[in-house]
Specification:
single chain; 440 residues; mainly alpha; Glycosyltransferase; 17 helices; 51% helix
Length: 440
């Protein structure tokens, strides 16, 4: 018997203080700068947490015993789901009731989600408990990218998968790009395979940017296309972090689209691209505004220390201009700050989280986005979110160690990978914080 897949995250007072990548902890030798006085080689990842100030120990959370047990059960189930070609499958939209992980061909989107979950567990393609699984999965993804036409918008000829129909036709390339960025963030950039990974990542980011519409969303929206666009935004952000070829304007437009789905002044949520589901829209708004919101906060903090603005001054365009930003920068940063702080609360309100009364893979992805947003923005209330969310996930885990959705994305492989990314997000606090650093 499976426990009811119902999440009723009653966060109560934690909602006001609480507020989902995916980016990964750098390996100790991830910095390959041979000459410390030279400029960083393109594509290298450097430990930039808190701009060299070190990570606040109070922000770190050791994995609770019950969560660790839940994770290990899920990992044991997950590795048995790998197909002979190295990939993983979610299955067809037309066969949502089929729960056999081997009953469908491998798809890049699901393979990328599983790979990110195994990376977050501490493995790479070279070492760790899941090294062999990751090596095969990575090869599957690289071949998918390399064999795709140069002018394509996606990296697979598969159509009609659960993930594509519900999130968007081009979700495979977005999630694959994010995985490749995260993989490169864990390994030294003088690795013999670095150039292959970077070439695949650049080809993927070019596809994402080519599929972008005038309003910053991604073409081929599915039932909840706002999530495809949100994860494409995340992919561009993480790719830029490791030195890939990302157009600043494209990333700005992608972020602006996500922010436009939530009006911080009125609380109005645009759900036309979110299947009418508030959770999908506000989690994307929170995630895509987190880095810019942090930039606004840190700019104000520095300006207050330097005496440029009053110590009690709120974040406003005028105050940020006093702090040194241009008028346009100040207005954008203020908008992001307001959207983040309002959307993170809305994304965790009981009525929004309860949604349909049960969960599909879209809900799991939304919860992930909210949690990662909090960490990227150095929001200490992330621990309240983590405690509440992990407790509910542990409580609804299937007896075999997997999770599955009860509507839309039902795939146990995809849902288990996403649940694992949520449970283990505390493994990657330093890298998520580093990804959110603006250097200003």
């Amino acid at each position: 018997m499976k426990k009811p897949l119902i999440i009723t995250l009653a966060l109560a007072a934690a909602v006001a203080g609480s507020a989902a990548l995916i980016s990964f902890r750098s390996a100790p030798d991830a910095c390959c700068r041979l000459n410390p006085t030279a400029a960083p080689p393109k594509g290298c990842v450097f430990k930039t947490v808190y701009e060299g100030e070190g990570l606040d120990p109070a922000f770190v959370l050791k994995t609770p015993a019950e969560v660790l047990t839940s994770e290990n059960r899920a990992y044991d189930w997950m590795i048995t789901a790998q197909n002979a070609d190295g990939g993983f499958a979610a299955g067809s939209h037309s066969a949502q009731s089929v729960m056999d992980p081997h009953a469908a061909p491998s798809d890049p989107a699901t393979t990328a989600m599983v790979s990110m979950a195994l990376l977050r567990a501490g493995s790479t393609v070279k070492e760790g408990r899941f090294a062999d699984v990751l090596k095969r999965a990575t090869e599957f993804l690289l071949k998918s990218v390399e064999n795709s036409p140069q002018d394509a918008l996606n990296i697979t000829t598969l159509t009609g998968t659960q993930i594509q129909v519900k999130l968007g036709q081009n979700i495979d390339v977005a999630l694959t790009a994010q995985y490749l960025s995260n993989l490169m963030g864990r390994l030294p950039c003088n690795d013999p395979k670095h150039d292959r990974w970077m070439n695949a990542l650049n080809k993927s980011t070019a596809m994402i940017q080519r599929s972008q519409t005038a309003n910053g969303s991604v073409q081929g929206s599915g039932w909840a296309g706002v999530l495809q666009s949100s994860f494409a935004t995340n992919a561009l952000e993480s790719a830029q972090h490791v030195g890939a070829e990302v157009d600043d304007k494209a990333l700005e437009q992608a972020r602006d689209f996500q922010k436009s789905n939530f009006d911080a002044n009125t609380g109005t949520v645009a759900t036309d691209a979110a299947a009418g589901v508030t959770l999908y829209a506000v989690s994307g708004s929170t995630r895509s505004s987190a880095k810019e919101a942090r930039h606004a906060e840190e700019t104000m903090e520095r300006a207050k220390r330097e005496g440029k603005v009053d110590k009690a001054a709120p974040v406003t365009p005028a105050a940020l201009q006093q702090a040194g930003l241009s008028k346009d920068e100040a207005e954008k940063a203020t908008t992001a700050y307001n959207v983040y702080n309002a959307a993170k609360v809305r994304a965790q309100s009981n009525d929004v989280i309860s949604g349909f009364g049960n969960n599909g893979g879209e809900e799991f992805m939304s919860f992930l986005q909210t949690g990662e947003s909090l960490i990227i923005n150095r929001d200490h209330s992330w621990r309240n979110w983590y405690d509440a969310t992990t407790a509910r996930l542990v409580g609804i885990q299937n007896n075999d160690g997997s999770w599955n959705g009860h509507h839309c994305i039902t795939s146990p492989v995809f849902c288990t990978a996403t649940a694992l990314l949520i449970l283990s997000v505390n493994n990657d606090i330093d890298a998520l914080v580093a990804q959110g650093a603006t250097g200003g």
